[in-house]
User: Fold these one by one.
Assistant:
Number 1:
Amino acid sequence: MDYGCAGFHGNREMPLNPSWPEIALRLALTIVAGALIGANREARGHAAGLRTTMLVTLAASVAMIQMNLLLPVSGKTGASFSVMDVMRLPLGILSGMGFIGAGAILRRGELVTGVTTAATLWTATVIGLCFGGGQLALGAIATILATTILWLLKELDRRFIHVQRATLRLSAAAGTDVQALVQEAIPPRYGRMLADLIREDERTVAIYDVKWRDVHGENPPLAEISRLKSQPGVREVAWIATTKRD
């Protein structure tokens, strides 16, 4: 079967009249690509999971196929005031993806999440455009590279040393020198900066921004926190990780 510009034969021209078997092949490869990429997001519990990624990829592919089917349509007649530019259709799809990607990014203080999810949806959209436009080889290569980045490089990223951040909240009885307790209990490698100190009649609350370099940043110093909790006058100790890599 000859798929024209569909990618594997190296023809650079998009066929004006793609056959239904060719369209079916494009859609099938689109679904496979969306499933491979979306499986990573689903396995890690992200909001944009398997179904979201597959739908985004499918929508881009269908839009590109529709554009392909409209290529033979005459763009402008002598009596018309406007011209039909079918190439604006995939451009509109990419612009619309900007809104979806922006909705996946969340920021709370210095904690930013969803950037990788937004980039994944953007990549899935472009892959869908490749398959929908008949560039099957390019779409297949992009799918392999995207899944490699999401699955394999995630494990490699965990081995890198990153700057980690957390919030330490200490509540103690009024009159307790909370700053001295924190300085004694938390090792110097955890850079501490006092963010807030609240003195009340019955208690004193100290909030610290903690910053350090580590591979496993979301693991709190349990031994030090336990020792801090056992100090006289201490009522509550909370360690909240504010660094999260998606």
Number 2:
Amino acid sequence: MSRAGRAWLGLGLAAAIGIMAWSFDGFLGQIDDVEALPGRHADGAVALTGGADRISDAVELLARGDADRLLITGVNPLTSRAGLLRTIPQARRLFGCCIDLGYEAANTIGNASETERWVRTNHIRSLIVVTSNYHMPRALAEIGSALPDVDLMAYPVVTERDRSRPWWSDAGAARLILSEYVKYVASQLRLRLAPPRSEPPQEVTAR
């Protein structure tokens, strides 16, 4: 390769690294390190399973009156209401009126689809999204794409481990953040390239 070719290659690599660093910094800027209440009432809330304290925090929001109804999406098919009550007994008085379980979602894309059906069925116009802080950017992107006409409010769940040390000082946390960043970028690309919807979403009966 000629000297000019090597120079252009070096410039291209430097530009690519710069873009990746800028993108990663923007992703980190979306991760909150404190739990902040929405500040206003919402028609509904959705808790995405898969992380510590997500369900219990969502139930607390419901009990406080911050939302009228709660969907727990991505529930393991082997988990029953009784099983959930053993882990979150404070939900006992709310299950009969205000909590629905979604068993179909296996990932964040599925969470968004399951949430969309539940929102349309229950005529919800404002929604609190409850998930881990590192997962919130991707969750909002997927749910926001599925529900562009619904007002979304984020409630990021922050664990004691998250508060005790910065993510870069812990190998496990660093792997989690980097993995989530890659998934977030892939999600953004997929959503931007996806064709527009041609049919309105179908309603289903909430469980």
Number 3:
Amino acid sequence: MSTEAGYEKLTELLPFKIDAENSSDFFYQINRRRNSNTISNLELNRLSKWSVLKLQTALIRTDIAANQLITLPEAYACRLELDINTIQNFEGELDQDKLSDLFYELINLGKEIATKGDIS
């Protein structure tokens, strides 16, 4: 994969096209709130951060007379960072019996973003 290929993959998941040929250092962050299906009047933050990560690995051999630096080929990956949580100023009560369901709702929202992309 290359940076351009990573941008093309992100274009499939984001609501806009990235100019893969003429762009660099792309970073997209958005919070799309959604109402909870588990607890009434509770809004959930769905913060997602999208980018392409370049990995470069280097090894230093010290078992020979002169230290040798060995660099491996570059690798690229699409990166998604998620922060899914309840809003800070919720005034209601979190029912203990529903906390497990809320936890799984948060997990499922993360899975939804990872598979379907940046959707409302």
Number 4:
Amino acid sequence: MTRRLAHPLTRGLALDDPRTTEVRKRIVREKPFLRRIYEEWYAAIVADVPDGAGDVLELGSGAGFLDEMIPSLISSEVFFVPGVRVVLDAAALPFGERQLKAVVMTDVLHHIPRVADFLEEAARCVRTHGVVSMVEPWVTGWSRFVYSTLHHEPFRPDAVDWSFPSAGPLSGANGALPWILFERDRARFEREFPQWKIERVRPFMPFRYLISGGVSLRALAPAWTYRAFRALEAALRPAARATAMFAHVTLRRS
């Protein structure tokens, strides 16, 4: 089914090929339904960024356009992509202590194979009261079905370890990792990373990203239906913990 729905621009491209990220950047801009989803995600993230001194680092910037909303953004990727300012490893950030006021990302944390190292590095680089703000996949009854049957990335809510083998910068993943960190293993997270306070976990968006086709599939509905689906999701908000596919998570540096 997913093969028939595959976006024609991505056919034949390997996930870990930088050209795939460039193609996805074009898809995000040319699919109005999907672009509006990104705009909504970015608005939530921008609202988290504190005022005052410090840089804002985005991880996994290649396919996005957050730099249009944060002009001084330090965009980054794990490989060279045109328009990205820094190539880096999230587990070894090339910044000084307290240099950043925020680290932000969309759909990136679950691709970091040594996430504990990233959290330590972010704690070193982010100033007191700064944030890590992200939109990531989430685990619910509905999302388990979608991510396990319709999505290409590994999705293992039962994983014992937070780390996973680094098969490749994009192909290596555990889509359930954010939920494992901030929900299932929250007590462990708070014990091992007292530098970070989990300020927000907001599960949301059960249908719209799926309907948009994301960056890999064709859209399942025209752009003019966006408001209707957003209204439907608003009505279903009380059931978000059973239906959400994503969560907006905010960590505050203590």
